[in-house]
């Protein structure tokens, strides 16, 4: 479960950075990055 959450978090952060840079949608990119950091191993997991 830990590995799956970590992978989801990485994908969300990368997608957030892509949205910020390539598509220039600031709010949606920031939301994706914050959610990725909350789910990730260094953050507070919303699933536990």
UniProtKB/TrEMBL annotation:
InterPro entries according to UniProt: GPGG_membr
Transmembrane segments: 6-21, 26-47
Record keywords, A-Z: Membrane, Transmembrane, Transmembrane helix
Protein's UniProt name: Uncharacterized protein
């Amino acid at each position: 479960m830990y590995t799956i959450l970590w992978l989801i978090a990485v994908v969300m952060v990368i997608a957030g950075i892509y949205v910020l840079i390539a598509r220039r949608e600031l709010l949606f990119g920031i939301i994706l990055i914050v959610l990725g950091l909350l789910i990730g191993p260094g953050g507070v997991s919303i699933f536990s």
